[in-house]
UniProtKB/TrEMBL annotation:
Signal recorded as keyword: yes
Signal peptide residue numbers: 1-27
Keywords of this entry: Signal
Originating organism: Tahibacter amnicola
Domain of life: Bacteria
Protein name listed in UniProt: MBL fold metallo-hydrolase
Length: 493
């Protein structure tokens, strides 16, 4: 039985003092290879890269498993920690993890005139592509394999107030800070290594598709991690996967077996702040949230909404846009803005009518009752009637059973009052056809869409106290060219 040196109960200020005061072995900048194994024929099943003295990054080949997880081995003067043990090979030879770790630690130990090196086998989280190799270490001397349940992780590291608090593990002149990070998975953690100024973030943040299973926990974790980064020198944020291309805002499809144009592994502290800002801004989000280096997606239970009629404002001079007409009760409690396509004859008829009625807005109403969250997705089509004016308030029906194709979701979330400050606007469109939509938060509120003289820029725009805009009003360096739609009554309560 190992001594409980790893169960240090230091937290908060005391933990930070200990890390700051402790001598650090092997302090160095990390070096990364020109390319990681990415699915080429003949590549090793397990790539081993020494990023700094006592710091190894291992990657499982995509030819072994499409998840191609990254594993991290950190060694101090007295012991080492292995973070994650990989996925079960789908093809090819077994993963030679145990023999690789033993060899690396034997070489490290030899330089310190020691015998067998004690080892902790820990995990960023419990998903099966991170724990398969655990069995290889169960009979290793001086080794403890951390359990994968939340209670086991909290008990091992000394975190009785999970997910609050922090804990410290000292590898021998190499202190590590353990940060609870649930949301992707209940037992998820991050590890900060002061020696390399690196934050090992697992599946919570990496260049790829960030899957959220518990939104409230994930949002709290993102805020906690951003606060942590504000208190520590973080130069590298190292996740467990790469799923993004080197081109911004582009991901490889899931289960891609060959990724020759991968994004770099290391993100920066700015990405942690970007993630926290995005999760704070989003309400109970429904659609994917795309950023340059990562995309947020949510795993949600089937919608409990009942089928209903969902009218939308129709507008746009070159492109076609739709904005859902919301209310604060289910199933209408969604703000949705999308880019759409209409058949050429429908588009021509609408444009012709709009030219004759420049001061009138247009709306559509999908035919039949359907569930909004299931009926709206990129590439989907639905039938709708097209109206001059409001479809429920005396509008004139111009066309029936028009086929509408969802081209791109711009903004789609369920209302969650108080998650963003008042007076925020959602920009979309292009430089020569730019719009703002008022971000709706909680009753009483308003729904407004305006066209600008130019693009305001930014993901969201702050203007005034949330009051309605009028033609000619200044918004930053631009002005309101036209008010397309304004609604107060539906959002009083």
């Amino acid at each position: 039985m190992m001594q409980p040196w790893f169960r240090l109960k230091y937290r908060g200020i005391l933990a930070l003092f200990l890390v700051a005061a402790a001598p650090v072995v092997g302090a160095a900048s990390l070096q990364f290879p020109a390319q990681w194994v990415h699915g080429m024929v003949g590549e090793p099943v397990l790539q081993v890269h020494e990023a700094a003295p006592g710091t190894w990054i291992l990657r499982q080949s995509r030819r072994s498993h499409f998840e191609a997880p990254f594993l991290y081995l950190l060694a101090g003067e007295k012991r080492a920690l292995l973070l994650d043990t990989g996925a079960e090979p789908q093809a090819g030879p077994p993963l030679p993890l145990r023999e690789t770790i033993d060899r690396l630690l034997a070489e490290w130990s030899a330089t310190r005139s020691r015998g067998p090196f004690p080892l902790i086998v820990a995990h960023t989280h419990a998903h099966k592509d991170h724990v398969f190799g655990d069995a290889q270490f169960h009979d290793r001397a001086d080794t403890q394999v951390v359990g994968t349940k939340r209670e086991e992780v909290a008990a091992f590291f000394g975190l009785p107030r999970w997910p609050q608090g922090e804990a410290m593990v000292d590898l021998g002149q190499r202190p590590l800070i353990i940060v609870p990070l649930p949301g992707h998975e209940p037992s998820h953690i991050a590890i900060y290594d002061a020696a390399t100024r690196s934050l090992l973030s697992g599946d919570s943040l990496y260049p790829g598709l960030l899957t959220v299973r518990d939104w409230q926990a994930y949002r709290a974790s993102a805020a906690s991690l951003a606060a942590f980064v504000g208190r520590h020198d973080v130069q590298h944020v190292l996740g467990a996967h790469i799923e993004a291309r080197s081109t911004a805002r582009q991901l490889y499809p899931l289960e891609t077996a060959y990724q020759p144009d991968e994004h770099v592994l290391a993100l920066q502290a700015s990405h942690v702040r970007e993630l926290a800002q995005a999760t704070a801004r989003l309400g109970d989000f429904v659609a994917d949230e795309v950023h340059d280096d990562f995309t947020l997606t949510r795993v949600s239970p089937p919608s409990a909404d009942h089928p209903s009629t969902h009218g939308m404002v129709l507008f746009g001079q070159r492109e076609v846009y739709l904005s859902h007409m919301p209310m604060f009760h289910s199933p209408h409690d969604y703000q949705l803005i999308l880019e759409a396509e209409l058949p050429p004859d429908v588009l021509a008829a609408w444009r012709q009518d709009a030219a004759k009625h420049p001061d009138t807005f247009y709306s559509i109403a999908p035919t039949g009752a359907w569930v909004l969250t299931e009926g709206i997705a990129e590439g989907k089509t639905f039938a709708a009637d097209l109206f001059r004016g409001h479809f429920e308030r005396g509008g004139a029906r111009l066309l029936q059973n028009v086929t509408v194709t969802v081209k791109r979701l711009i903004h789609f979330r369920r209302f969650e009052a108080g998650q963003a400050p008042a007076g925020r606007w959602i920009p979309f469109g292009s430089n020569d056809e730019s719009y703002l939509a008022h971000r709706i938060e909680g009753a009483p509120d308003m729904d407004q869409i305006v066209m600008l003289s130019g693009a305001p820029g930014g993901e969201e725009w702050a203007h005034g106290n949330g009051g309605a805009l009028a033609a000619g009003d200044r918004v930053g360096t631009e002005s309101v060219r036209r008010v397309i739609y304004t609604e107060f009554d539906d959002l009083k309560q």
